[in-house]
Design brief:
Strand order of the largest sheet: 4-3-5-6-7
Radius of gyration: 26 Å
CATH class of one domain: Alpha Beta
Helix content: 25-40%
Largest sheet: 5 strands, parallel
Shape: globular
Number of strands: 28
């Protein structure tokens, strides 16, 4: 049935008023908010925003971590027919100016002093920003800026208005239609300015319902909301599906307590990009390397059993009596305690998306009894395009089209999608809209891929990034940079990779090591180092990374299509790539073109046969100061292998 988010809220508040809607951890104690209290909060906020002058069809920016009152603000804005725009809380002021001026924003609701300071800085360049409301008052007592006030004042104003106008909120909600714009999400802007992706209540609710039906979600699920609400993935899981299903969304106390909160809540439905799963596994392996020999031996013995039989058992296949007994014993001694340590003891469905996940990483989680699956989607498709059925989870695919989705391939291999979850448009950008939406309703994903014999979608790379090697032994061979980067990132010692090779005679890569994993590896070998830059240039570390690169090359040699993408040369960067330095987007996607310009001397050295190159790089520190990091970087050759079927 066509509906809106405020109507879904009213339905839960009517049918199950005392059931928990959200929990927030404050001062170490979980506080619960039921559906009735949530509706009352939304009513008062919407009345307060109306009193402040927020109009139907107007945009309002929301910035902060996952907080109940910020989620309530989104609902309050939608109740009035206004359009919330969540922005990344770690974005600097300069990154907020374009979205706010583009959407002509007058109102914003933020979490705390840090965000208030940012908005005051934005207002210097976008003076139309007239109203700034904050949730957390700490540090703001002496701020006397015009238009700045607390959410407490906003709620008090709204409560007084609601008492005098008891039918106002209901009348506003009834004016809303499913086809109305519900929210706008800005893309990461890997090339040029970000684009405002416009979604309706219908598009977001339709996809939330499709995902809920696919995985049989119920009001009994527990979700931990810890990723940025500005990312549509988190927004779908902790907002759209929350209101569709009526389950409980739990908000951590802070970013530093997420692992503790994860253990305490024990979510049943979990979502994270691969880097989170990589980080969890890295921490486990570091702890096991420091454990006693007996415990370490038991762990490795039963993990070998799990890798051999666990995935098949997760897929519902028979593994035989002895393996079943060994898995049961392993579950008692190793897998169960490990799931509990990770906070996954109650997980029924876990999803990863955004990037490819390594086969070994994927197999690890499924082998210890965690139903980890992949999905495929984007901001423009309201996330849910393909999902993996419980018994068909594979590392090399992203699942089958879910309900209401059609997929076809263009002549150039691009994936085209049609569904009710597609964006309405790019805001104020008809040219960009026309580029991605055809007249007959097909969306150009810009991803290259194909449907395999089992009906699963496989992703190769971004269409624009798929290139060709020019010259040399692999002249004309396909080059898929993201595919190469992801294969290297599957190793726990490698955090980030940038690959180059299109229209060049060979493939070269620049690598970021994982400082924690490589640091632990170095300490166990009594290898001293003084920080990231020093560790990254150690000959022993280059040997470790070279081994990873050559394993990937050996694997690529088995693939006739991508054998020419083997890495010939590499270097380890002297600093971690950072969104604050413009090298990554806020969703941690590599800005390959920007990096090519910034590190041009390094790329020149890679392709001209040099074995070392000095580089000095400007960096931005957390407190806003700028500085520089310099080093002479080593450059290493890597062994490549003859493709299978080709005579050496």
């Amino acid at each position: 049935m066509s509906t809106t988010f405020p109507r879904l809220l009213a339905s839960h508040a009517t049918q199950r008023p005392s059931a928990s809607a959200m929990r927030e951890k404050e001062y170490g104690i979980w506080q619960s908010i039921d559906w009735s209290a949530m509706l009352q909060m939304v009513t008062h906020l919407s009345c307060g925003l109306h009193q402040a002058g927020l109009q139907r069809g107007e945009h309002i920016v929301i910035i902060g971590a996952n907080r109940p009152r910020l989620y309530a603000t989104m609902l309050a804005a939608q109740s009035l027919g206004a359009i919330p725009i969540p922005l990344y809380q770690d974005a600097v002021a300069a990154e907020c100016i374009f979205p706010m001026s583009n959407a002509e924003v007058r109102f914003c609701v933020v979490e705390d002093q840090e965000q208030v300071d940012k908005m005051l800085e934005v207002r210097d360049q976008w003076p139309q920003l007239s109203h700034i409301f904050y949730d957390d008052p700490r540090g703001l007592r002496k701020y006397m800026e015009p238009g700045l006030s607390s959410m407490e004042d906003l709620l008090a104003s709204g409560e007084a208005f609601a008492r005098q106008n008891p039918d106002f909120y209901h009348q506003q909600v009834e004016q809303g239609q499913a086809e109305d714009v519900a929210a706008m999400f800005f893309t990461s802007g890997t090339t040029g300015n970000p684009k405002g992706v416009v979604h309706t209540h219908l598009s977001l609710i339709d996809r939330a319902q499709a995902g809920a039906k696919f995985d049989h979600l119920t009001p009994n699920e527990d979700v931990l909301a810890y990723l940025p609400p500005a990312w549509i993935g988190q927004n779908i899981f902790s907002y759209a599906q929350w209101l569709v299903c009526g389950y409980v969304v739990n908000c951590p106390e802070s970013a530093s307590t997420v692992m503790i909160d994860l253990n305490e809540i024990g979510p049943t439905y979990y979502f994270a990009p691969p880097r989170v799963f990589e980080g969890l596994l890295t921490s486990v392996m570091i702890r096991m390397e420091d454990a006693g020999s007996l415990k370490r031996g038991l762990f490795h013995y039963f993990m070998d059993i799990a890798r051999k039989y666990g995935p098949a058992k997760m897929d519902g296949q028979s593994v035989g009596l002895l393996p079943s007994l060994l898995l049961a014993l392993g579950n008692l001694l190793i897998y169960g305690p490990l799931r509990n340590t990770l906070g996954f003891s109650r997980v029924r469905v876990a999803y990863t998306a955004g990037e490819a996940i390594g086969p070994d990483l994927f197999r690890f989680y499924r082998s210890i009894g965690i139903n980890l699956k992949q999905l495929y989607g984007s901001t423009e498709t309201a996330v849910f395009v393909c999902l993996q059925p419980d018994n068909q989870a594979r590392a090399d695919t992203v699942g089958v089209p879910c309900e209401g989705v059609e997929i076809k391939m263009a002549e150039n291999g691009e994936i085209l999608v049609k569904s009710s979850g597609l964006l309405k448009e790019y805001y104020k950008n008809p040219a960009a809209t026309a580029e991605v939406l055809t007249a007959d309703g097909w969306y150009h994903t810009s991803d290259a891929g194909f449907i395999d014999a089992q009906g699963h979608l496989k992703i190769i790379d971004r269409v624009k990034d798929v290139g060709r090697i020019k010259g040399g032994a692999n002249d004309g061979a396909m080059f898929a940079p993201k595919y190469v980067e992801n294969k290297l990132k599957f190793f726990p010692h490698i955090k980030e990779v940038v690959a180059y090779g299109d229209q060049r005679d060979k493939v070269c890569v620049m690598i970021n090591i994982d400082f924690e994993a490589v640091g632990n590896w170095a300490e166990r070998r009594n290898l001293p180092y003084a920080g990231y830059t020093d560790l990254a240039q150690k000959p022993e570390v280059y040997g470790l990374i070279k081994d990873c690169v050559e394993k990937v090359n050996a694997d690529l040699a088995q693939d006739t299509l991508l054998a020419g993408s083997q890495v010939n040369r590499f270097l380890v960067l002297h600093k971690e790539l950072d969104a604050d330095d413009g090298e990554l987007t806020r969703t941690n996607k590599v800005r390959r073109g920007f990096i090519a310009e910034k590190y041009e001397p390094l790329i020149h050295a890679l392709y001209t046969g040099l074995y070392e190159q000095f580089i000095e790089t400007q960096v931005k520190f957390e407190d806003g100061r700028t500085g520089s990091v310099s080093a002479t970087l080593k450059i290493s050759d890597a062994t490549t292998f003859t493709p299978v079927g080709k005579v050496a």
